[in-house]
Amino acid sequence: MACVAVTWARPESTYTDKWDNINVDEILESNRLLKGYVDCLLGKGRCTPDGKALKETLPDALEHECVKCTGKQKSGADKVIRHLVNKRPDLWKELAVRYDPDNIYQARYKDKIDAVKGSA
């Protein structure tokens, strides 16, 4: 559901790599930081510049299977998905309701989601 550090699109074929070196583990290990990002994505709280960029880019990344994501962004997204599915299913569900109300992406990515379950 989340491509952490994915940002607005450049005219080239990938999203900007400006935030590729964000410490995804630090965000996932901090309830405060994680909640800040999730609240931003859900429109419940203020967004940092990178949170705002993620919020703007996430729908495109979901729709197009992250084809414009850099390798680091794809790796970060996998890590975030694994964490949310296994350790924070409450947040995963909230994000799914917001970004996938018709279960289009849940169905499209079912195999990938099922593959990360239990592999936190």
From TrEMBL:
InterPro entries noted in UniProt: A10/PebIII (IPR005055), OS_D_A10/PebIII_sf (IPR036682)
Protein name from the UniProt record: Chemosensory protein-14
Organism annotation: Bombyx mori (Silk moth)
